[in-house]
Amino acid sequence: MTHNTALRELGFSAADRVVIVHADDVGMCNATVNAFFELADYGVISSGSVMVPCPWFPAVAAACRGNADIDVGVHLTLTSEWDRYRWGPISTRDPASGLLDEEGYFYRNCGGV
After folding, report:
1. Phi, psi at residue 49, to the nearest 5°?
2. Residue 56 and residue 73: Cα distance in Å, rounded?
3. Rounded CA gap, 63 and 55, in Å?
4. Domain coordinates of the chain in residue numbers?
5. Distance in angstroms (rounded) separating the CA atoms of residues 97 and 89
6. Residue 36 contacts residue 23 (beta carbons within 8 Å)
7. What does the alpha-carbon distance between residue 10 and residue 6 come to, in Å, rounded to a whole number?
8. Angle at alpha carbon of residue 100, lines to 98 and 102, rounded to 5°
9. For residues 81 and 36, what is the distance between their CA atoms, to the nearest angstrom?
10. Residue ranges in 1-113 assigned as alpha helix (H)
């Protein structure tokens, strides 16, 4: 049986089976922020990804500063499909960038480009 070296470094044996529960879209709305950190406090999740252009990103970043044990990455966000809740790029608002639809937000899907 081949042993995953990353799991061995985490203290697991070759016979152990490991499940990592990852929370996606953290920061999309306020409820995701509280839920993510509560689940992490209870040990249900150990990792997540934050959507940087979404309104609650600053709250996630602030909470992460006080929780160094939580693994949080960046969710690459290039679309905004909701009807009444949209976001756009943080790097530019120039229509020539090709990132913005006619309403000034990310395209609703990849086919909109």
Report:
1. -130, 135
2. 15
3. 15
4. 17-76, 78-113
5. 10
6. yes
7. 6
8. 115
9. 22
10. 5-9, 30-41, 57-65
Query: Could you list the pLDDT tens digit for every one of the 113 residues in the chain?
Result: 566 788 888 898 888 888 888 999 999 999 999 999 999 999 999 899 999 999 999 999 999 998 888 899 999 999 999 999 999 999 999 999 999 999 999 999 987 55
Burial tier of 106 (Cβ tally within 10 Å: 0-12, 13-18, 19+): buried
Q: What Rg do the C-alpha atoms of the chain give, in angstroms?
A: 18
C-alpha to C-alpha distance for 89 and 20, rounded to whole angstroms? 30
What does the alpha-carbon distance between residue 87 and residue 103 come to, in Å, rounded to a whole number?
A: 10
- Residue 87 · residue 76 · CB < 8 Å: no
Q: Which residue has the tokens 């979404």?
A: 54
Residues found in the chain: 113
Residue type for position 79 = T
Token pair 């639809």 is found at 101
- pTM value is 0.78
